[in-house]
Amino acid sequence: MKMSSITTKMQKINFKKINTIVLIAFAALTMNGTNALAGGNKNTETGYLEISGKIKIAGNGMSDARITVMKDSAVARHCKPDAKGRFDIKLEMNCVYYLQISARGMTTKSVMISTVVPNEALAAFEYEYPFNIELNPYTGENISSDVPVAKLAYQEKYDGFDYDRFYNRDSEISTKTTLAVKQ
């Protein structure tokens, strides 16, 4: 066999490999490109805020506690903590939620959580925020659970979620004042 015929056969084999690779690459791009041309390849991934923690009463877990997740003034779902009072809840981004934490014989508490972020690119991230909440025995005082005991929102200075320190301080002062006036 002559060298030129070997070279020709090798070129044909390489040409077939290249054609196969190009064809596969073209098919893959076409499938993704069709989606992109149809407007279906937009970044629709959204992140979430994962709230986890423990419901306590005098340091003990609350196995009979219940968390009601409110979204847009409607019940989105109910969550039950484990036997030690631990819970884990994932919340969609760019929404406002109210968590109502209750248990038999305890005063219900509400926490407002805004998952709204300042720009759409941040909505694709997954955030975590751990917190514990303590329920107090119901004493007959009419403290409204409609008023959140805390507010949680995205804080640009922390590049993440944190509670509103001013709201929480004012809420605590207001609650103590209300109790003092009633006595």
Number of separate strands: 10
Could you spell the SSE succession in H and E letters?
HEEEEEEEEEEH
Q: Summarize the biggest pleated sheet.
A: 6 strands, mixed
Distance between the termini: 110 Å
Write the CATH architecture name of the largest domain. Sandwich
> How many domain modules?
2
Radius of gyration using CA atoms only: 28 Å
The low-confidence runs, each spanning 5 or more residues with pLDDT under 50, are 20-44, 173-183
Shape: globular
Structural class: alpha+beta
CATH class of the largest domain: Mainly Beta
Tell me, rounded to a whole number, the average pLDDT. Answer: 73
Total DSSP helices: 2
Beta-strand level of the residues, as a percent range? Answer: 25-35%
CATH superfamily of the largest domain: Immunoglobulins
As laid out across the biggest beta sheet, the strand order is 4-3-6-7-9-10
